Amino acid sequence: QQSEERFRNAFDTAAIGMAIVGLDGRWLEVNGALCRMLGYSEEELMDKTFVDVTHPDDLDLDLEYVRKLLNGDLEHYQMEKRYFHKTGDVIFVLLSVSLVRNEKGEVIHFISQIEDVTARKSESDRIRQMAYHDTLTGLPNRRLFDERIGHTLAHAKRVGYPIALMFVDVDHFKQINDTHGHDVGDEILKSVADRMSHCLRQTDTLSRVGGDEFVILLTELKKPDDAKLVAEHILETVSKPLNVNTHDFRITLSIG
Question: H or E segment at 11?
């Protein structure tokens, strides 16, 4: 009785979400913190299963852990996953699951502890974005580019396709900065980056590695001459008239 009372106290007043989940995936009991986290009343949540609120991309891994738990391969498991809030918004949670057995050793239900880590996840993603991307253009920076070129070279050796590396400078960029100011120069760099990006495939990488210097990595080319065609397309696209702060510019590039 005392043990049940202690558990009930902890369950009801816990700052994180807690649930007792049946073997069929239905919520048998949920605490107030979980209801608030997911935006449902207790009655609404009890009508659902954990599958109903789990992001489909995370479901297979979750079910695999459940299977291992029931087979005795795991005593408990912990994973980061996504749930759907009642509003349809996605929230990130840290889920910890363990089993409860009866006096015969038979599994009767699961105990889940669910912590909302959305804010922590967002901050982590923001820090990673800052560490690996150029703040002005949003392009990969030198650090991320170095990682990608390593992976690309290894892949190219395996599949036998040529790759191409292009070094790109904006012509007379210092003169633009000196004449029109750095704000105009920044807008031109952002426009040049955007125009070059539209000339590339998703598998290619465009990186800003300094001032007006960019590097392009083309992957899985059918023949080396394809790099020349891409370079010509970039030169033509970037050279189209560009208006910044009522000034018209015709930007040219040097590509090696």
Answer: helix 2-13
**Single-letter residue type at 206:** L
pTM, whole model, 2 decimals? 0.56
Nearby residues of 119 by Cβ (< 8 Å), 6 or more positions away: none
Per-residue confidence (pLDDT) for residue 123, from 0 to 100: 79
Sheet order of strands, 90-101 included: 27-30, 17-21, 107-116, 90-101, 76-84
Inter-residue contact 199 to 214 (CB < 8 Å):
no
How many CB atoms neighbour CB 110 within 10 A?
Answer: 21
pLDDT for the residue 119: 86
- Which contacts of 58-61 are long-range, i.e. CB under 8 A and separated by 24 or more positions? 58/82
The CA distance from 11 to 9, in Å, is: 6
Enumerate the active-site residues. Answer: 212
Cα 197 to Cα 102: distance, rounded to the nearest angstrom: 60
Q: What averages of pLDDT result for each successive group of 10 residues across the chain (256 residues)?
A: 80 90 91 94 92 92 92 91 93 94 89 91 77 90 91 87 94 92 93 95 92 93 90 95 88 95
CB 95 within 8 A of CB 112: yes
Q: Whose CA is closest to 114, among 35, 57, 9?
A: 35
